[in-house]
Write a structure and sequence with these properties.
Elements lengths: L5 E6 L21 E7 L3 H12 L4 E4 L15 E2 L7 H8 L1 H24 L11 E5 L2 H17 L4 E4 L1 H5 L9 E5 L3 E2 L2 H14 L3 E3 L4 E7 L2 E6 L2 E10 L10 H4 L3 E10 L4 H7 L5 E4 L6 E6 L2 E9 L8 H15 L8 E11 L6 E5 L2 E5 L5 H16 L27 H19 L2
Parallel strand pairs: 1-17, 2-3, 2-12, 3-9, 5-14, 12-19
Antiparallel strand pairs: 4-8, 5-7, 6-7, 10-11, 11-12, 13-16, 13-17, 14-15, 15-16, 18-19
Bound molecules: flavin-adenine dinucleotide.
């Protein structure tokens, strides 16, 4: 019998949409002129719109899709506090002082996003449960411990290394040497967070309209002439918040982003006691210490559901084929879940930058906040707010990322042609490693 990884009622809608489905916004005609046009209605665009509307600006947010239909309702809901690529490597290149400043931005982003959820009373299952990262051999253990110690000395990170025995209280996987536990990180329901942010931006006076692509921007003496799929208007200022979905509208930005595909799935309901025995710590989990990476968590409010994701890098495969790959990853990490199928499997686009830093500022009169490097839940929220403050001329808009060169990427039209090759190589390396360990 051929193996299947999807259930009969399988859908490619995100699990998150069960509780928070992005909703349309009516088809009222667009205004003839606005103070600020924000392109993109994910966390970044909505956060910018909220700050601008609270400052009294007339704001229109336009999105090609339904507001929130892109990465901001497709992610894992992990709320982290660090930059991609770690501290040590960056410190070797830039020195300790600059590295502390740059990582300080990620810590500020974390604090800002968590505070905002509180200030706006957004009901999104915010949980301060910490993040656990298993390591698989002594060399990885030592390297991770050294990196953590460096971060502990210079940043506000809390946690520590767990031995194999301590790990067993947290996570039941075979073959791990231990883990890093970062205590002061959180998780949310990403769809409910996006919905709350949208309601708050709208309540502050911003208009949020989906199904309306911005197709052309032309600079004029006083602002911009804007063309969209639903008509034209004038905007005094423009904010680009399109992250991985940046397209031909702004080719200068697209050439600076590496777009990558990430996939997540909801497992069919399993006995909550079994899941609890596999992930007793009920935290967020990332396994990126092997050649490819996976992430998982128990669904908030649904203890029978494990949500499991990975970077399959296989953008042109059918969902059923991707499900088989993800099922193999799941079975490798949790053998007792062998044969588990997925009810939901969805993908989204993530934008990386060559220097692994977010970028924000003004280019040719256009304000922008882009390049969240897979941490956009807190980072997008924060850089959206910051770019809005900059636009308002508020000195609090300053960030450690200001004035840095936005390096070109080797991708073609934002698509990393090398990603499927890298992923295939990574899978092969992992397979070799597993074969060598005899499991
Ligand atoms: C599977 C997956 C898991 C992830 N897990 C996490 C996680 O756990 N934690 C975390 O912090 N981050 C995570 N991320 C990344 C995170 O989701 C993104 O960084 C974040 O959502 C980016 O928000 P954004 O508002 O900048 O962009 P998006 O939410 O991607 O919004 C950009 C919007 O711009 C719109 N747009 C583009 N061009 C135009 C145009 N011309 N006209 C009108 N609209 C346009 C698009 O339609 C889109 O809606 C994950 C991503 C994926 C895909």
């Amino acid at each position: 019998m051929t193996k299947r990884a999807t259930t009969d009622d399988f859908t490619t809608d995100p699990w998150w949409w069960e509780a928070a489905r992005p909703w349309p916004s009516g088809d009222a005609p667009l205004p003839g002129a606005v103070d600020v046009l924000v392109v993109g209605a994910g966390y970044t665009g909505l956060s910018a719109a909220l700050t601008l509307a609270e400052a009294g600006r007339e704001v229109l947010v336009l999105d090609r899709l339904l507001p929130g239909e892109a990465a901001s309702s497709r992610n894992a809901g992990f709320v982290g506090r660090s930059l991609l690529g770690g501290f040590g490597q960056m410190a070797k290149k830039l020195g300790i002082a600059e590295t502390v400043t740059l990582h300080g931005g990620a810590e500020e982003a974390y604090d800002f996003a968590v505070d905002l959820m509180g200030r706006l009373s957004i009901d999104c299952h915010l949980a301060h449960r910490g993040r656990l990262l298993p390591v698989w051999n002594q060399a990885q253990y030592d390297q991770t411990a050294a990196e953590f110690e460096l971060q502990r000395r210079h940043l506000r990170i809390e946690g520590g290394m767990l031995s194999e025995r301590e790990l067993a209280q947290e996570l039941r996987v075979s073959g791990a040497r231990g883990a890093l536990l970062i205590e002061n990180t959180s998780s949310v329901h990403p769809g409910m967070y996006h919905a709350g942010l949208r309601r708050a931006a709208e309540a502050a006076g911003a208009r949020v309209t989906g199904g309306c692509a911005v197709t052309h921007l032309a600079r004029e003496a006083e602002g911009f002439a804007v063309r969209t799929g639903r008509g034209s208007f004038r905007a005094r200022e423009v904010v680009i918040a399109t992250n991985a979905y940046t397209g031909g509208l702004t080719p200068w930005f697209r050439r600076r982003l590496v777009r990558s595909n990430a996939t997540m799935a909801a497992c069919e309901a399993r006995d909550p006691a079994l899941l609890k025995s596999l992930v007793p710590g009920d935290r967020t989990y990332i396994d990126y210490s092997r050649y490819q990476f996976n992430f998982w968590r128990i669904a908030p409010d649904a203890p029978s559901r494990l949500l499991f994701g990975g970077q399959t890098g296989l953008m042109f495969k059918r969902p059923e084929e991707i499900a088989l790959l993800l099922q193999a990853d799941l079975e490798r990490i949790f053998p007792p879940l062998e044969g588990t199928r997925f009810t939901h499997l969805w993908s989204g686009e993530v934008a990386f930058t060559m220097d692994r830093l977010p970028h924000l500022g003004v280019h040719e009169g256009v304000h922008f906040a882009l390049g969240c490097n897979a941490a956009g839940l807190p980072m997008g929220t924060w850089i959206g707010h910051k770019v809005a403050l900059k636009l308002l001329g508020d000195p609090d808009g300053a960030t450690p990322y200001d004035g840095r060169r936005f390096p070109l990427s080797p991708s073609i039209l934002g698509y990393p042609w090398f990603m499927p090759l890298l992923t295939t190589w990574a899978r092969w390396q992992d397979w070799r490693g597993a074969a060598a360990r005899g499991h």
